[in-house]
Amino acid sequence: xxxxxxxxxxxxxxxxxxxxxxxxxxxxxxxxxxxxxxxxxxxxxxxxxxxxxxxxxxxxxxxxxxxxxxxxxxxxxxxxxxxxxxxxxxxxxxxxxxxxxxxxxxxxxxxxxxxxxxxxxxxxxxxxxxxxxxxxxxxxxxxxxxxxxxxxxxxxxxxxxxxxxxxxx
Length: 169
Description:
Elements: H1 2-7, E1 23-29, E2 36-40, H2 43-47, E3 56-58, E4 64-65, H3 72-77, E5 82-87, H4 95-125, H5 130-133, H6 136-167
Parallel strand pairs: 1-5
Antiparallel strand pairs: 1-2, 3-4, 3-5
Helix pairs in contact: 4-6
């Protein structure tokens, strides 16, 4: 009933069953490193994000969503937070580049996690310099030797634990 009123020209009221459900979609322009999360209710919301002459939409695996497939039903089937790639001017899409970029991001993330782990362990294991200050120059060199050996020890243990954990994934 409400949809019939909306179709008859009364603006501003329609039941939620008539409108497509909005989804969070992560859209990346081909060649961009970062995507743009948007809330979209249809394909035109996605296509409006990047202007171009011949827009093409791809899944991350390289499959193209053809113009004939861009229906409301197909949009409803997209999982939440689906990543889509857009080529606004009809560019080709190479999924290998995406996989390489994902590998780089995962390696960077693992490296940052490892460094944070080593820093946290080092901060907890090494005493403050104030405890060594009263020994003079000998205390400073002894403190430096202690810090270096402790850092190497912590780094070694963290590395083996980190490698064992990532090997079990």
